[in-house]
Amino acid sequence: MNALTVSAPATLDRRSVYIFLTRHGLLFGLAQLLILAGAINYDNALAYLLAFLLGGLLLVGMLHTWRNLAGLALVGVETRPVFAGEDALFALRLDNRAGPRRPGVDAVAVAGRRPGWRGPPERGAVSRHALAAAAIDEVTVAIPSAQRGWLALERVKLESVYPLGVLRAWAYLPAAARCLVYPRPIGRLPLPIGGGGGTDHRGGGGAGHDDFAGLRDYVPGDATRAIHWKSLARHGEVLVKRFEGLGGTTASLSWDAAAAAGGIEPRLSQLARWVLDAEQAGLAYALLLPGLAIPAARGPAQRERCLEALALFGGP
Amino acid sequence: MNADGLARRDLYAVSAVAALALAPHALRFGPGLAAAFGTLVLWRLLGAAGRLPLPGRGRPLLSLVKHVIGIGTLLGVLAVHHGQLGRDAGVTLLAVLLGLKTLEASTERDFYVLSFIAYFLVATNFFYSQSMLTAGYMTLVVLIVTAGLVRHTADGADDARASFALAARLVAQSLPLMIIAFLLFPRLPGPLWGLPQRAGGAVAGLAEELSLGGLTSLALTDELAFSVAFEGEPPRARDLYWRGPVLWDTDGTTWRAGQGARGPVPPVIVEGPRYRYTITLEPSNTRNLLLLDAATNTGDAPGRATADSRLLAARPLTSPVRYTLESATAYRLPAITPGQRAQALALPPGFHPRARAFAQELRAASRSTDDFVARTLAHFHDEPFKYSLTPPPLTGDAVDAFLFGTREGFCEHYAAAFTVLMRAGGVPARLVTGYQGGEFNAISDYFQVRQRDAHAWVEIYGASRGWVRVDPTAAVAPERVSLGLNAGLARNAPRTTLDADAAPLRVWRGARALWDAANYRWGQWVLGFEAPQQRALVASLGLPELGRSGLALLMIAALAIGMAGLALFVLRARTPPRDRAAAAYARFCARLARAGLVRRPAEGPRDFATRVAAARADLAAEVGAITDLYVLLRYADAPLPIVRLERRVRNFRVNPR
């Protein structure tokens, strides 16, 4: 399930692109001053010309650096849910249809403040992009997700020192997109397998004992023990083993069954683990949370429905 | 520390450009500089390739070596240059520092620092040469440094060629701003520190003293001394005497200016036409402002006139100057102070006994001063005196040895000997050095006077006429004066085998005249642009005389206007891809139309494509692809690069059947 947020285009107009000298730009200015001093001292016409050429380069560079960001518009943000601890990825669609080629554009995602969070807003890692001319380009930025729930991308900071490295232009694109963060799928409790209410526990390895039913692509969250290492070694593909044989069985993933995991968050993590395990084992599963019951089913839609419920549990 | 923050590509680029910027210095300072720099850079490059260990953390010995090189160079340079950090010492140090900086370069910051040092190195080259050739070469270096910066910031997105193209665009767009600043930046007088060393290479100016032999080397160089443009008809070549140092005092072998320049500036009584002319003087590191004979009006010459009719600048000239003044070639200078008369008659006691005796004898036999002068000149003419640039050495009393022994010499021998004879005969005389003649450049209508045109003559004082010029060399080799140095020599020398009028030589001369004309403009408009020219420019704009701050304000205003114009140009709206797509499609249709496949009005692109495909099966695939791209771009506003359509249309060919 990919979520495409199509926001009102946020265009970087005249006033929203800032520019200033970089650290190296100060050195560049110093070199110019030294050349100018030499020109005055030796009364040297060509040294004057060089000093002024470099000065002109700085001014012209300002236009070019500024242009490298100005006029870009954010027309949409695409995200897909992640598990807590992974990077939340935001694919930004940048409209550059009337713009030049823009190499050396750095993008950093700035997260929205979560309630109760003190300190500076969280930022992702810097990624560098070259945007094609006259096209809509896609740029992916990441924010590490720490906890379940919505992770808001408040804005994206774009930065560029192209083409001279002596000036830095930067701008903030308001993004207003959010990424769903599922609970981290961890927990050691066995999968509660039973007919109905989730009281009928079947011990043991759960999915491990059943009949091998083929391989499928790896999906984030799959247990490492299910990875088919041979095909990884042979073909470099990450595949996981799929098991069947419990088709008729239903796992009842209830809040109570996960009580042994501990507090609220560990319980949610355990439930997320179970959702993945049950899905992988080809079981139908129901999710029972205080105030919420998702009837038994299986398949990607069920998986996402359940994980979303876990991610947003207790939230507004 | 192998290039963690410093990409190998950047390291190579910056090393190469530093070598390019240093190359002219290496030619100037000899192989030592190149070897020192080359070794350090090679060490770094081999280190980057993993062939050699680099100094750094964990390698104290190598780091020590590095520091020893650095400190050793500093001390060595200081020792060689006697503790003075002048121009030469500065360049040597900079070269070694650049090498050391390259050696330890490991971060992105180092890349920038090295690039900026390379820019600075370019400037240091200008302190030695400001020729057009240097300017052209250094422009290339600046472009390469800039391209390196572009390539670095593009981080792999631009290749070398694209980086260079953008750098060239950036530099071209900077030119208007550079010109504005160059024209209007207030020129500050005087050096900021120390006395600058001579700029402009090994140009030998006229010295303030002359000892027999000193003019030989000067006479043979082709270096330009100055250029002159006359307003209106120029004087005849034989009247072109360019006055330099006037030498009064002699100790028997060496002539010096002495105190003759002191005293009131004599009036000039003009007896012929006046000539207005502009001189563009090359830097000579002397204070001599050359002028034609005697100035009737010193115009805007940046110096003062002296009692012996010279023009002296306030300080040694280290950059080209340009000034306009007025002179006469027929005139009288009827003024002499008692002090000057005494100087103009003084001879060192005990020197030149034979010359003195000869002069006194001649004077006694002469009816008048004029007769004495004429007889002396006749002596040079009638006796077997010979004009030669390579006279035999003079032993003993130089003047006597020349007059009665070798009888072979050039202008300075004749001038010095003649002055001695005049003084011995009781006629006040002074030795004038300067240049004679000049080469006319018909392309730009001006004269070029080169160091080989250096000349020496004599001025004698007569009660009726005042100071009068006498050129004893003319009595020996009149061609030297009327036709120039080569003609003067030709009289004695066998004719060279090269025919002076041969076609290749004419072409060569023509090319050289063009090159000289370009150099002249270069010197006049670029190198000679100083405070007076700046004032003239401001006046020509119809502005009142501006002070330094006024000029600065004018410059800032002009720069702001220039920036606004550039902003409009750089940030101009681009054609939206929709329209570009339509334009590309129109070109595509035009190509088909030439092959007889005309799109009907109101025929949709897809219908047209189907019709074309039916008519020409060979075109079907390409026409279909282009039409699809066009429809996507034009109507679906698809996020596809427009260049894809444009490229396909450009390569689209309809082969005739």
Characterize the structure shown:
The complex is a heterodimer of chains A (316) and B (657). The longest helix of chain A has 23 residues, at 45-67. Chain A has helices at 23-42, 45-67, 229-235, 264-281, 300-311; strands spanning 3-5, 10-11, 17-21, 73-79, 82-83, 87-96, 102-111, 127-131, 135-144, 149-160, 167-182, 193-194, 211-217, 239-244, 250-254, 284-289, 292-297. In chain A, strand 16 (284-289) and strand 17 form a beta hairpin. In chain A, 47% of the residues are buried. Chain A is built from 5 helices and 17 strands. Chain A is elongated and about 95 Å long. Residues 195-209 of chain A have low confidence and may be disordered. In chain A, helix 1 runs antiparallel to helix 2 (45-67) and helix 4 runs antiparallel to helix 5 (300-311). Chain A is an alpha+beta fold. Chain A has 2 domains: 3-16 and 69-182, Distorted Sandwich (Coagulation Factor XIII, Chain A, domain 1); 193-311, no CATH class. In chain B, the strands form 6 sheets. In chain B, strands 9-12-7-2-18-17 form a 6-stranded antiparallel beta sheet, with helices on one face. Chain B is elongated.
Tell me the count of domains of chain A: 2
- Rounded to the nearest angstrom, the distance between the terminal CA atoms of chain B is 66 Å
Query: Helix proportion of residues of chain A, in percent?
Result: 25-40%
Class by SSE composition of chain A: alpha+beta
Major sheet of chain A, described briefly? 6 strands, mixed
Q: Roughly what fraction of the amino acids of chain B lie in strands?
A: 5-15%
Regarding CATH, which class of the largest domain in chain A? Mainly Beta
CATH topology of the largest domain in chain A: Coagulation Factor XIII, Chain A, domain 1
The CA-CA distance between the termini of chain A, in Å, is 22 Å
- Shape by Cα distribution of chain A: elongated
How many strands, what sense, and barrel or not for the largest sheet of chain B?
6 strands, antiparallel
**Average residue-wise pLDDT of chain A:** 81
Number of helices, where a helix is a run of at least 4 consecutive DSSP H or I residues of chain A: 5
Q: Count of DSSP E strands of chain B?
A: 20
Return the string of H and E elements of chain A: EEEHHEEEEEEEEEEHEEHEEH
**Mean pLDDT figure of chain B:** 82
Low-confidence stretches of chain A: 195-209
Oligomer: heterodimer
- The CATH architecture of the largest domain in chain A is Distorted Sandwich
Integer tally of domains of chain B: 3
